[in-house]
Design a protein that fits this description.
- With 308 residues, the chain is α+β, with helices and mostly antiparallel strands.
- It is built from seven helices and nine strands.
- The strands form two sheets. It has a seven-stranded mixed barrel. Strands 3-4 form a two-stranded antiparallel ribbon.
- Strand 3 and strand 4 form a beta hairpin.
- Helix 4 packs parallel to helix 6.
- The longest helix has 16 residues.
- The radius of gyration is 27 Å and the shape is extended.
- The two termini are 12 Å apart.
- The relative contact order is 0.12.
């Protein structure tokens, strides 16, 4: 089932307007997640909203937002007051300017969204805006309100739609000076650079996300499968960093090691079958199952996990 739109409104370039919907371009729902349990009973932990002074539980309708002025003083702000904050970007993404993609500092990027026409009308206007951005080879900068906050959004063409990337404000980006000031100025010799460049050339490739494997996710699934099957869990040795005594020698050894690793093995090791590239299958669901259902699940074939 297609995800629900995070936002619906209008995209406007001067007098050209069209209805649009904003959808999340990424998902983490397929990642292994854990619940907190009571070690003694095995029951899930539930959190209650309680009054900090009285300790009594508070109903949702009695909870309001408050801005902390000092230790015991808060300014209460109601939902209605927040909704009355007049921001045109609550319902409209107004394109304010166009910039070169190279001018956007990567530190300002937050998360991507897909922007598509909403409904059957407005496709012509949407196409005009999209193709104008494409032909000018620019990124459109606008504003949008999500979760009661106004965000800067950068729009650029992607296939038949637009990709919108939320951007941070300057006050959200820390200066690198306080972190980089103490890095020593080191003179790198040309010989070292040549050896390092040789290593880079040996490892040169193309960006292919399908080749990436979330090794931690795979290890989590292995751990859960072993515990379900009642197999012993053994701790693995942690990798240790080695002190570099001779940098030139280390670079030379790296070149030799990379060349050896590049040779294909004569007998490839057998790997467990995977539901999708870079992701192992789970033996069975682990959350919210009663003992009787668990026994039935053990008799059923392995369940494949869908990738995001």
């Amino acid at each position: 089932m297609a995800p629900r739109a995070n936002w619906k409104g209008f995209l406007r370039l001067s007098l050209v307007t069209c209805p649009v919907a904003l959808y999340p371009a990424t998902s983490e729902s397929e990642k292994v997640s854990f619940n907190q349990l009571n070690r003694k009973t095995g029951h899930r932990i539930k959190y209650a909203k309680v009054d900090a002074d009285t300790g009594e539980e508070v109903d949702n309708e009695d909870i309001v937002k408050g801005y902390k002025v000092d230790t015991n003083t808060f300014i209460e702000v109601t939902k209605e007051e927040l909704e009355n904050v007049a921001l045109e970007s609550t319902r409209t993404i107004e394109i304010d300017e166009f910039v070169d993609r190279s001018e956007i500092d990567p530190r300002y990027l937050i998360r991507p969204y897909y922007l598509v026409p909403d409904g059957k009308v407005g496709h012509d206007a949407f196409a005009v805006i999209r193709e104008t951005i494409r032909e000018m080879n620019k990124v459109a900068i606008g504003r949008v309100v999500l979760t009661n906050r106004e965000h800067i959004i950068a729009l650029e063409p992607m296939d038949k739609g637009l990709m919108g990337t939320l951007l941070r404000y300057p006050y959200e980006v820390r200066s690198a000076d306080e972190y980089f000031d103490e890095i020593q100025d080191v003179k790198v010799t040309q010989d070292m650079l040549d050896l390092a460049k040789h290593i880079v050339n040996q490892k040169a490739g193309h960006f292919e996300p399908d080749k990436f494997e979330d090794q931690y996710e795979t290890a989590l699934i292995d751990l859960i499968n072993k515990k379900r099957a009642g197999k012993p869990i053994t701790a693995k040795a942690r990798p240790r960093g080695e002190n570099v005594v001779d940098l030139m020698d280390a670079l030379r050894k790296s070149i030799g090691g990379d060349a050896a690793r590049a040779e294909p093995p004569k007998k490839p090791a057998k790997k467990a079958k995977r539901a999708t590239p870079g992701q192992k299958e789970m033996l069975m669901p682990i959350a919210g199952k009663k003992p009787a259902k668990e026994a039935a699940a053990k008799k059923s074939p392995a369940r494949q996990r869908k990738s995001a």
